[in-house]
Amino acid sequence: MKHWTLAACMVSTTFAFAQPVQSQEFTWSIGFVRATGSSYVATLETVPERIAAATDGRLKIELYDTLVPGPDQPAAVRDGRLDGSFAVSPWLSAEAPYMNFGHLPGLLTDIEQYYQMLDPLLREEMASVWRDKYNSVQLATGVFETQCIISRDELRQVSDFKGKKVRVHNTEAASLMSQLGAAPTPVNFAEIVPALQRGVVDVVMTSVGTASGMGFPTVAKDLGLWQVGIVVPWSFVVNTQKWEELPDDLKEVVQTEFRAIEDEHFAAHEGFSQRNIDKLVSEGMTLYEPPQEVLDELFSEENVKPVYDNWYKLNEQTGTDGRALVEKINALKDEM
User: Fold this and answer.
1) Domain boundaries of the chain, sorted by first residue
2) Helices and strands (H, E) in the chain, number of each type
């Protein structure tokens, strides 16, 4: 009897070890803002399926645009109330103005330049802010498509901005508009189309994809590419504790897939922007691209210096060195 019991135990133990080990599965609740029509939304909506496929279902991404309002998402990720966010840099203007270097006039002049600077410099500069201020790991970064200025009346000269009520989406653009004699006017993102229609604002700054997706051609006809706030970044970040829960092999897969998503996002930027510009024009908008002499006036020292000075001051108040970052960016531009 004892021999039989021992044999049975051996068989049972062998059978147990022979069973396939079930991989642990993880689910992240991720916040975003529904910027309809933008390359931001076009990219992030691919993420759940791509991450599920890359991880064989071990990591599930669930997207939510209503759990936490956009500007509150970084703090929610920091506190663990939200697992992660496709966070937009203008949300950080008060707590982390350092992240808004892309809005500084004349500093970064095109998206390809920004993309080429990511790994020598800018990726880690942004990641350090997410790590230190928001208890978050940055897994990818991207940008909104080409920025535009939409108005009901024609804007053809710098002087045309004077007296206009302008909806801007970042502190640096607000500072520049103030220098032009315009009145920066805050408007909730979801209300910018009716605000322009009703005259609450005269001018709206947004991206060309969002302009198309939200139906701006029905309320305004002037589409200007004024090169204000060219780089409007977003970052995909996840709470550090949630990230650390993943086993190392899964972390590697996730990092690799997010980098592929990022690379494809940047590769599609120019085409995405142009298609939306063409669509806006086909829907009746008049495209205006300011000549160089007008842009030179817009970005004159008189207009630009106060924008930088204000940004430097905001950084000093929040414990970051904006001057040093600008110097690093300019030095890297000289090497490229």
Assistant:
1) 24-144+232-267, 147-229+286-299
2) 15, 11
Indicate if 147-229+286-299 has the same CATH topology as 24-144+232-267.
yes
Burial class from Cβ neighbours inside 10 Å (0-12, 13-18, 19+) for residue 86 reads buried
Q: Tell me what the mean pLDDT of segment 123-129 comes to.
A: 98
Task: Report the DSSP beta bridge partners of residue 236.
Answer: 86, 140
The H or E element that residue 283 is part of is none
Cα angle 78, 83, 89 (rounded to 5 degrees) comes to 60
Q: What's the whole-model pTM score?
A: 0.90
Pairing of strands 59-64, 165-167: unpaired
The hierarchical CATH code for the domain 147-229+286-299 is: 3.40.190.10
Instruction: Using the predicted structure, report yes or no on whether residue 254 has a pLDDT greater than 80.
Output: yes
Token pair of 130 as six digits: 């997410």
**Residues in contact with 230: Cβ distance below 8 Å, sequence separation at least 6, in sequence order:** 102, 108, 109, 110, 111, 147
Q: Is 253 exposed, middle or buried (CB count within 10 Å of its CB: 0-12, 13-18, 19+)? A: middle
Mean pLDDT over 118-146 rounds to 98
pLDDT at 134 over 70: yes
**CATH number for the domain running over 24-144+232-267:** 3.40.190.170
Rounded to an integer, what distance in angstroms lies between the CA atom of residue 159 and that of residue 297? 10
Alpha carbons 79 and 73: distance in angstroms, whole number: 10
d(C-alpha 172, C-alpha 307), whole Å: 6
The predicted-structure confidence for 233-246, as pLDDT tens digits, reads as follows 999 999 999 999 99
